[in-house]
């Protein structure tokens, strides 16, 4: 009952004229000029129009997607929880001021955050690694990033040491210790009976990490994939790396059944079957015997085609910018 009520509130909130016309506190100029793409209203509200509205972000409770996959994050950046036979794995750690909310989401689903053994981080941006220091302190979890993206984390920490006035008061940057993990392409991270395969897929950052693993429901297994850097950055060079990553994932993982996103909504790389929360609403209103809406291999295929064109357009735009005499 409670769950249904929460969804109704969310749907009502994003449909309200105040939101559509830019009444939200966190609304940026760009966001005010765009409407949510069709079928994306909830994820768009969390990721775009209300990205900085902390209370709105914290209105999202954790929810179960498969027997062994939960979403425990806030609305603007996802945090995933994978229970195993030997403790919990998290993918991404959120950032302040949301870490307490993420920990509460984990507890409210019946898990103890002290059982988190491994936190895999998709890339070295604060919205993904910002909560890692506190989770490590609480549970002793091993934190995993690629070598290049650990370097990005170290650089943020060094920047805060050099210029303490730039450090947000509540952020503690995770420090790499001897137990932590440096993720390499082809690694298999195992905890209990669960294994997660690592792909290093550069383009958004030099070492964005993607993860392939198996999820289960009603005795059936499905192949899931989380693309750790699904939008290009860093000019022509970053765009070309991204393009190569997309080609590689397309070749190696054509048969993914469950495509997962690091953000509920991606502006360039919108997911064909809806953002994370559109799929959540479908999941939570599903009738007995209906398929899980997160199992959707056709959308994965379409998304890979879309990512390819995102890469091409980005490279063309960045090439034009680089050669423009006015810049
Ligand atoms: Zn990022």
Output the helix-strand order: HHHHHEEEEHEHHEHEEEEEHEHH
Mean pLDDT, to the nearest integer, reads 89
Number of helices in the DSSP assignment: 12
Number of domains: 1
- Tell me, what is the CATH class? Alpha Beta
Small molecules in complex: zinc ion
Sketch the major β-sheet: 7 strands, mixed
CATH A-level architecture = 4-Layer Sandwich
Q: Rg to the nearest angstrom?
A: 19 Å
Unreliably modeled segments = 1-5, 15-33
* Terminal residue distance: 57 Å
Indicate the percent of residues in helices.
25-40%
| CATH fold field value | Metallo-beta-lactamase, Chain A
Structural class: alpha/beta
Task: Work out the strand percent.
Answer: 15-25%
CATH superfamily: Ribonuclease Z/Hydroxyacylglutathione hydrolase-like
Can you give a write-up of this model?
39% of the residues lie in helices and 18% in strands. The protein has 327 residues and is α/β, with parallel strands linked by helices. The chain has one domain: Ribonuclease Z/Hydroxyacylglutathione hydrolase-like (Metallo-beta-lactamase, Chain A, 4-Layer Sandwich). Strands 1-2-3-4-5-6-7 form a 7-stranded mixed sheet. Strand 9 and strand 10 form a beta hairpin. The protein is globular. The N and C termini lie far apart (57 Å). The structure holds zinc ion (ZN). The site of zinc ion (ZN) has 3 residues, from loops.
């Amino acid at each position: 009952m409670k769950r249904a009520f929460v969804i109704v509130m969310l749907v009502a909130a994003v449909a309200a004229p105040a939101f559509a016309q830019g009444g939200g506190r966190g609304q940026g100029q760009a966001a005010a000029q765009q409407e949510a793409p069709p079928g994306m209203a909830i994820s768009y509200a969390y990721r775009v129009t209300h990205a900085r509205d902390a209370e709105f972000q914290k209105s999202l409770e954790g929810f179960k997607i498969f027997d062994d996959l939960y979403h425990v994050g806030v609305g603007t950046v996802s945090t995933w929880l994978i229970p195993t036979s030997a403790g919990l794995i998290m993918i991404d750690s959120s950032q302040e001021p949301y870490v307490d909310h993420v920990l509460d989401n984990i507890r409210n689903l019946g898990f103890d955050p002290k059982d988190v053994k491994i936190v895999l981080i998709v890339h070295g941006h604060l919205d993904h690694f910002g909560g890692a220091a506190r989770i490590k302190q609480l549970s002793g979890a091993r934190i995993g990033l690629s070598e290049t993206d650990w370097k990005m984390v170290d650089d943020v920490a060094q920047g805060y040491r050099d210029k303490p006035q730039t450090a947000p008061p509540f952020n503690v940057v995770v420090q790499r210790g001897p137990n932590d993990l440096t993720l390499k392409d082809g690694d298999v991270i195992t905890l209990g009976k669960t294994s997660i395969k690592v792909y290093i897929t550069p383009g958004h950052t030099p070492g964005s990490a993607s993860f392939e693993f198996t999820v289960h429901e009603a005795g059936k297994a499905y192949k899931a994939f989380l693309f750790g850097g699904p939008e290009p950055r860093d000019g022509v060079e970053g765009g070309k790396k991204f393009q190569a990553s997309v080609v590689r994932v397309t070749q190696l993982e054509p048969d993914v059944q469950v495509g997962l996103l690091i953000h509920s909504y991606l502006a360039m790389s919108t997911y064909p079957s809806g953002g994370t929360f559109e799929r959540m609403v479908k999941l939570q209103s599903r009738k007995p015997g209906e398929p899980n809406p997160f199992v959707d291999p056709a959308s994965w295929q379409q998304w890979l085609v879309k990512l390819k064109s995102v890469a091409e357009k980005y490279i063309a735009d960045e090439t034009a910018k680089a050669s423009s005499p006015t810049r």
